[in-house]
């Protein structure tokens, strides 16, 4: 019997999160400046992983929004200076009895006010139009803003292929997987014996194929997407390093001690981090699963602990909730041209005085901030060159985590998170079993452990995820993190 033709249902855009963020930079000036400074500004810190955000597109739109605001403020600052001059001239000439000049000066003041209002209106309207185009049109987001500096874009593109993560000391005690969000589980699975050979058809011992933790990591990285069957699952081995230890890894990681570390390093370093235990240098297999539209991101970080004759897995799972309500503003903008113009006119009128006369202060404040930042950065770089101080190059947080809101986790998001987590857990166990079989290792001990993990590794998503989460293990430990990791700090 042929399958019925089903009616199509609405779906989230695959680039939903990127579009929301790009739209918001056109509506929220402080956010636009923060994005531009974080991802395009000069500094020393590593960047957090994008987790499904197109950072190149976001930075392009941030540059466009910041440039529009700067042009507005420069024009308004000039008008704010000329306006009192025109009024004083009108008053002085009127007192002097030169009424013609006084009328001309008063007319010039009125014209300046009209021009200032037009500048404020035009900047606000263009920002809203850009946000609407991003929020409701299907045009590729990258094509809606001009390119920025090639070096900046190449650095941001490299984060998509990142196999190196540096985390700051301030983040380590809470979440060394910086920017991954809220913890779901954290456990070390019971160890299994991998020293016993499997039997062949005649009951004789087969020859065990030697392997190390790097081999197991690579096998899972290749096989997990096939086993799990989730289209948006990405698997990559990454070397996680304490920011204070980055400088000790040499030029392959830090070519210039006065610049941020690289995001892509030689794979030999990553393999070494899987086999050896270094000082704050460890390799994890990072599995990332995007929910519909990227609204929810589930990550699982795995590390094979191979101390012959036993093998175990360290498992840490995190979730990034949906975006906060701040990024839904574009959905409430008037869609029609006439309504958009009228609503923009109303909002410009409400804050026009502050927009006009606050322009000089905003320019001074931004200039002072940039001078202070450049001065502090120059001092730190000088001290680093002279070996007068160590520097923590680690990332403090990630953008996707900073813009998330745990309270917006609805039933569907909790359900999907539970589903992804269980699929990943089962995939790890299945892939591990296949790997051991291919290396002629007796899996009877592993099968017993697998059953134990299945029985103890449970996750109740009906209640708040911030409640206790059971982590599998011999003692079935309870883990809980009711509040998000601390917000990111400005980069130096």
Order of helices and strands: HHHHHEHEEHEHEEEHHHHHHEE
| Overall shape | elongated
Number of helical segments with 4 or more residues: 14
| Estimated share of beta-strand residues | 5-15%
Work out the number of β strands: 9
Rg on CA atoms, Å: 28 Å
- Poorly predicted tracts of residues: 460-492
**What class do helices, strands and sheet pairing give?**
alpha+beta
Q: Which percent range fits the helix content?
A: 40-55%
Query: Describe the biggest sheet?
Result: 7 strands, mixed
Mean pLDDT: 87
**Gap between N and C termini:** 65 Å
How would you characterize this protein structure?
The structure is a single chain. With about 500 residues, the chain is of the alpha+beta class. Residues about 460-490 have low confidence and may be disordered. The chain has helices at about 15-25, 30-40, 55-95, 100-135, 150-160, 170, 215-230, 265-275, 335-350, 350-355, 360-385, 400, 410-440, 445-455; strands at about 165, 180-190, 190-195, 235-240, 280-290, 295-305, 310-320, 470, 480. The chain is built from 14 helices and nine strands.
């Amino acid at each position: 019997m042929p399958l019925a033709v089903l009616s199509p249902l609405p779906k989230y855009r695959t680039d939903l999160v990127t579009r929301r963020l790009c739209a918001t930079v056109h509506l929220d000036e402080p956010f636009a400046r923060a994005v531009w400074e974080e991802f395009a500004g000069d500094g020393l810190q590593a960047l957090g992983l994008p987790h499904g955000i197109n950072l190149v597109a976001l930075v392009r739109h941030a540059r466009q929004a910041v440039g529009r605001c700067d042009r507005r403020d420069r024009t308004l600052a000039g008008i704010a200076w000329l306006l009192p001059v025109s009024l004083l001239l009108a008053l002085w000439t009127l007192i002097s009895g030169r009424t013609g000049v006084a009328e001309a000066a008063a007319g010039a003041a009125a014209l300046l006010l009209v021009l200032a209002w037009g500048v404020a209106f035009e900047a606000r309207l263009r920002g809203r139009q850009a946000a609407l185009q991003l929020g409701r049109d299907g045009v590729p987001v990258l094509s809606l803003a001009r390119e920025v500096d090639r070096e900046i874009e190449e650095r941001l593109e490299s984060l998509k292929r990142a196999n190196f993560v540096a985390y700051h000391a301030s983040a380590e005690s809470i979440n060394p997987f910086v920017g991954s969000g809220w913890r779901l589980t954290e456990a070390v699975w019971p160890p299994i014996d991998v020293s016993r050979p499997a039997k062949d058809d005649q009951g004789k011992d087969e020859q065990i194929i030697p392997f190390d933790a790097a081999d197991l990591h690579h096998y899972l990285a290749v096989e997990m997407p096939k086993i799990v069957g989730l289209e948006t699952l990405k698997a990559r081995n990454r070397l996680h390093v304490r920011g204070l230890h980055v400088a000790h890894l040499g030029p392959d990681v830090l070519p210039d001690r006065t610049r941020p570390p690289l995001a892509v390093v030689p794979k030999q370093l990553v393999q070494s981090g899987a086999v050896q235990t270094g000082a704050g240098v460890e390799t994890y297999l990072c599995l990332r699963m995007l929910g519909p539209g990227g609204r929810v991101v589930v990550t699982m970080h795995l590390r094979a602990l191979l101390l012959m004759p036993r093998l175990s897995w360290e498992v840490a799972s995190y979730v990034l909730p949906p975006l906060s309500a701040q990024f839904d503003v574009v959905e409430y903008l008037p869609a029609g041209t006439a309504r958009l113009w009228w609503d923009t006119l109303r909002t410009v009128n409400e804050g026009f005085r502050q927009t006009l006369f606050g322009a000089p202060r905003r320019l001074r404040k931004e200039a002072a901030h940039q001078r202070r930042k450049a001065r502090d950065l120059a001092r730190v770089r000088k001290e680093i060159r002279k070996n007068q101080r160590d520097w923590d190059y680690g990332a403090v947080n990630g953008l996707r985590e900073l813009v998330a809101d745990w309270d917006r986790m609805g039933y569907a998001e909790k359900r999907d998170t539970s589903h992804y987590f269980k699929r990943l857990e089962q995939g790890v166990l299945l892939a591990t079993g296949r790997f051991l079989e291919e290396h002629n290792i007796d899996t009877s001990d592993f099968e017993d452990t697998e059953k134990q993990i299945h029985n103890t590794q449970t996750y109740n998503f009906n209640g708040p995820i911030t409640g206790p989460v059971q982590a599998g293990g011999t003692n079935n430990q309870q883990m809980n993190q009711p509040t998000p990791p601390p917000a990111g700090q400005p980069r130096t």
